[in-house]
Write a structure and sequence with these properties.
heterodimer, A: 78% helix, B: mainly alpha, 9 helices, 0% strand
Amino acid sequence: MARAMALTRANEIGCDECFEQMDRFAEMVYAGSSAKESLPLVADHLARCPDCGEEFDALMKALKATS
Amino acid sequence: MRGLRASLAARGAPQAAALAEDFTQEALLKILDSLDTFRGESRFTTWAQKIAIRLALTELRRKRWQDVSIQDLTGENENSPASTNVALSDPMPDPASATALRMLVERIEHIMKDDLTDRQQVALNAVMKHGMPLEEVARRMETNRNALYKLLHDARKRLQQGLEKRGINIGELLELN
């Protein structure tokens, strides 16, 4: 918790906004392109939010399974 | 829904195939319902899988946590790692650092009680100390996940300000760059 608090940024997006962009972000990660640089707020949220992080991991596994 | 079954299986969900079947119909309905929101920024299948996964995980979380009330989580949970262990999850090079970190955590606990609203404390406690999914905390607090994330964000910012006000440089103490 101490670490999470220390790394808090003034501008963070919420779960809804992250969800909206998650598919795009996932495809970029899968393709090995600069997802973190292009969508830094999404990357940031996924690192902080356990729910969204879990969903993102699951989406990556699904992408790998269906490619 | 091959993707959904794979991601559920990878998550260790028992009877992933059967679960995926159950969720598929609901997911298909949700996808159809949301078609007008598809903007073509990714492949259709990726977008659809995202929706299916959200649905499936929401339901799995609900089932897993259904017998846990938020009152069960107030204060320290003696059976699970204490908050100090969460903060101490980084490797400790020496006892002096460990002590300093423990003191920092205690300070944060005090600041939480002084500076945060009851609602913020309940939410932070449930999510960060006890690992309750945001969805589940939101449900019990009669709000939604997005609003809860923002509540947590505000709480974290307030804690940050509280530490700065009291002259504590947390970044330095945790050796963050």
